[in-house]
# Entry
Amino acid sequence: MDKSLDLLAKAALAPRDVATAAWLAWRAAYDIDTTPWNEVRMLGAVAARIDALEPNSPIRPRVFGIRKFLWVQSQICLKNCESGLAALEQSRVPMMLMKGAARTARDPLSVQERLIRDVDVLVPMNQQAQAFEALQQAAWSIAHTPWQVKMHELGPIASHHAWSFSKGKSEIDLHHVSNHLNRLRGDDDGFWARAVPTVWQGKAVFIPSAADALLIALIHGVRWSQDRSADWTVDACALLDEGPLDWDVFLQEARARQIQAHLYTGLAYLRDALHKPIPAAVMSTLLTEASLAQWREFEFYSIVDSAKTLEQGQIALQMAISRGAACLHELPDPVSPALQMPWHGRGPAPCKQWVRLPLYALSTRDKYVVVTLTIQRAQCSYSEQLQLNLMWPGLQSTILQLNALPGHSPVLMMCMPEALLALRSIEILALRITTNGPVHNFNIDFSMTSLDHLPATPAVGSVAVKFAVAKT
# Structure
């Protein structure tokens, strides 16, 4: 967390002596006129105690003005999102509020200290398509980001955890899973079982239990975010201040989701910086159970939103495999290849466009699935390079570079555990090819086989990527 944001979080949420020191340090080092918006909005949480932190502060009127602004903007957002929530209710889609919206449902006055920019709604995975259609029919559309439109065409519930819908200046984040790291079927069943039904804005909704809401705040808060806000600290501290949490449930979910490293990091900040009473046994359990692979995953997810390099992709896929392996008792029967694919087997693939490959589990008896892609093109020069953007099960994208050698077809061999494909049957494998040469089509031979061992690297001009379940 940036130093300025850290001081404001302490001023708003820490005990009085720590808060006063932090506020005075912030006032001495920073100017409200040049403070970025992600930090300015934390002043709404400071407003309630500013008279004690700095009696007769010259910026008191501005701080209270910011608090009023947050309240107004949040009310506008919540009001404008009513039509989307009404559409979901009319379609009989259960809705669970998350993050800021869930806190508002618990405490309506909290909107004056915590900005609500969008409404996060979790729906059951098997009703995602129904919810998607309901919002579209109510004149809500996927937010104007090209990747979302294309990604949804490739797979409605694959490779991402939510879709952002907009209507005017309002936004609803429609989640079919609660967070990006836990996207196996059944991961959120415990959340739904413990959710509390309530009526909010005249709509029947659910809100997570306090323990689950804390987990959601932490897993979203400590990961990379575009605006690097500290809203999660406000939500988390409110949950801790409300009363005893069911820490057994919290640890049970952390263990099942294998996110102990992320949760330990968030709780450590709340304990050490904001002096919140976190049970020592909870911290010890999280630290003991967090694997090295989890810490490596957390390290890069704290600075980027998805795997950008092959090394990061290997780390993220290792954790996806580990999370899947923990659920082997839920392994379904093998499924048939999906139909209605843009292409399969051998055929042309347009350059610079995503193509979905028919990824499926071949047999639960075999240990590994081998996916082989042979990329062919009639004309290519020695200087030409192909860049392959791959969307793996459990990831968003991984980038590989291949040389387009005349006389040799680049071959990409991917070897991954069978269990990952079966458990992540909701996921996809997609490929996009870009080149520094002329833009044209490629012919691609696509095949899948299953083996009981990791195969050797294929021939000249190839790249082999092998993944196995690592001991954690």
Observations:
- The domain at 310-466 is CATH 2.60.120 (Jelly Rolls).
